[in-house]
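Design request, tokens follow.
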């Protein structure tokens, strides 16, 4: 505020989980996460202020319109900042400062709208094209890796923070530190096509440019190329979402804090927990039968 920014808003929108669970709304989650505005800023639920908008986007050599919604506060902002957590994601290896902007779309039915009926990468690129990001923070002080690192907490103390005026450059550098090729990212490719005429940014790094995540955490685990390529095909089938989210539904949600809204969702959760328990039991039995330990090593091998 000392710099003259007197109308500061911390924005988020609702998603599919809020349709299933009580308390899974923007004000409650913000409070649980530790946000205390105290007049310094305000918490904005963009779902409650969504307005129709025709997004202009590039399609080959032509400009076209795509009708969806945008939150009024996000639309009218003079300065937009994306503040994201560094974590892995099976759809695109990593989910970073650019994908974070996708969460500002007001509609809560995000899976159906932006994964099944369209591509999340294209939708996010169109949003950034029409409402540019002015600064990006990417918090990797404690990151999360492995399969579904974005949903199942797997803390890795990387002790790094990326920041810059170009959100694409910020994410590119995170990809490189994870020893991944940023030009394979479908999200970055879509944004570069929409906002930069297909040209990836060049930039200078302040700090140690050679540090890799595995230098800090040798156990750091990226998503495999096979997984990313397979998920891109399977996500078009709605039932795939239930399979992918079996473990998060069974293990990662505090149902005392976020109780199911209806009997149907209570039943769905109970079935998911039973199914996940069965999967774990079968997995343990398979490892025992094949002589594999939980860490993948052969139990029958003995060091000499």
């Amino acid at each position: 505020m000392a710099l003259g920014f007197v109308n500061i808003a911390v924005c988020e929108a609702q998603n599919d989980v809020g349709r299933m669970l009580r308390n899974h709304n923007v004000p409650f989650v913000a409070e649980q996460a530790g946000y205390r505005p105290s007049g310094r800023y305000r918490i904005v639920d963009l779902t409650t202020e969504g307005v129709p908008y025709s997004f202009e986007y590039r399609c080959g050599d032509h400009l076209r319109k795509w009708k969806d919604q945008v939150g009024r506060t996000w639309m009218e902002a003079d300065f937009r900042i994306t503040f994201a957590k560094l974590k892995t994601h099976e759809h695109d290896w990593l989910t970073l400062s650019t994908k974070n902007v996708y969460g500002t779309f007001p509609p809560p039915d995000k899976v159906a709208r932006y994964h099944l009926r369209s591509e999340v990468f294209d939708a996010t690129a169109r949003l950034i094209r029409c409402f540019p990001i002015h600064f990006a923070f990417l918090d990797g002080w404690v990151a999360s890796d492995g399969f579904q690192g974005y949903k199942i907490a797997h803390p890795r103390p990387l002790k790094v923070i990326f920041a810059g005026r170009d959100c694409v450059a910020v994410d590119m550098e995170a990809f490189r530190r994870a020893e991944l090729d940023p030009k394979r990212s479908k999200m970055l490719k879509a944004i570069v096509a929409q906002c930069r005429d297909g040209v990836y940014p060049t930039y200078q790094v302040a700090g140690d440019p050679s540090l890799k995540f595995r230098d800090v955490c040798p156990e750091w685990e990226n998503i495999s190329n096979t997984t990313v390529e397979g998920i891109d095909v399977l996500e078009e089938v709605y039932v795939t979402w239930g399979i992918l989210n079996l473990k998060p539904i069974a293990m990662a949600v505090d149902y005392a804090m976020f109780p199911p809204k209806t009997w149907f969702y209570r039943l769905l959760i109970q079935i998911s927990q039973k199914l996940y328990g069965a999967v774990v039991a079968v997995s343990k039995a398979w490892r025992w039968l094949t002589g594999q330990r939980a860490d993948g090593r052969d139990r029958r091998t003995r060091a000499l």
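Comment from the thread starter after seeing the answer: thanks! The longest helix spans residues 263-290.
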